[in-house]
C-alpha cells in the first residue's frame, strides 16, 4: 500500500505540471465574472479524472468499449449516416461563420464614424468578464477528457493501480490523493490571481483583443476541419 501511495504522489505530481491545463486556467481566470467562479473549472477537472479512475479500475471502460463495439456492429450504418449528417452540418456552419464575419465587418465599417475608439475599448473591457459557471464546467470536463492523449503520467498511474487488489474505500482514497495533487497548481494559480488581480486583468485585456482578431479565422477553420473529417470518415465506412 505504501508503494502505491508513493507511486500515486509521484505520478500525480508529474501530471499536475501539464502546461495545457495551467494555460487554460491562466486564460480563463481573467475572463470569469467573479474570481471564485474559476472553481467551476477546477473542480470538474479533478472530478473527471477521479471518475475516469473509477471507470478504469472497476472495468467499466472495457464494458463501455464492448458495448460501443456491439452497437456499431448492429447499427453501424445508422451511426455513420448520422456522422455524415453532422459533418455536412459543420461545413454549412463554416459558410455561415464566414458570411456572418463578412456582414459584421461591413456593419462595423458602416457605423465606424458613429463610435469613438474610447467607447469601443470600454465595451471590450466589459465583455472580457463573460465566461459563465456552466461554460466553465463544460470546459473543465471537456478539456480533461481531450488531454488524456497527452496524460502519460495518468496512464502510468492507472497501470500501477490495476496491479493492486483494493477495496472501494482504498480506491477512493488513492484517487482522492491523486486528484488533490493534480489540481493543486490550479488552486495555487487562483490564489496568486487573487493577490495580483489588477496586473492579470490588464494582461487578459490584451489576450481578449488578440482572441477577437483571430476568432473570425480560427472558428471557421476548426469547424471546417471537423466537418471534413466527419464526412470522409463516415463515407469511408459507409462505402465499404
From TrEMBL:
InterPro entries: Gap/Sap
Origin: domain of life: Bacteria
Transmembrane segments: 38-58, 78-99, 136-162, 168-193, 214-239
Membrane keyword on record: yes
Keywords: Membrane, Transmembrane, Transmembrane helix
A Pfam family matched in the record: SfLAP
Protein name: GAP family protein
Gene source species: Kineothrix sedimenti
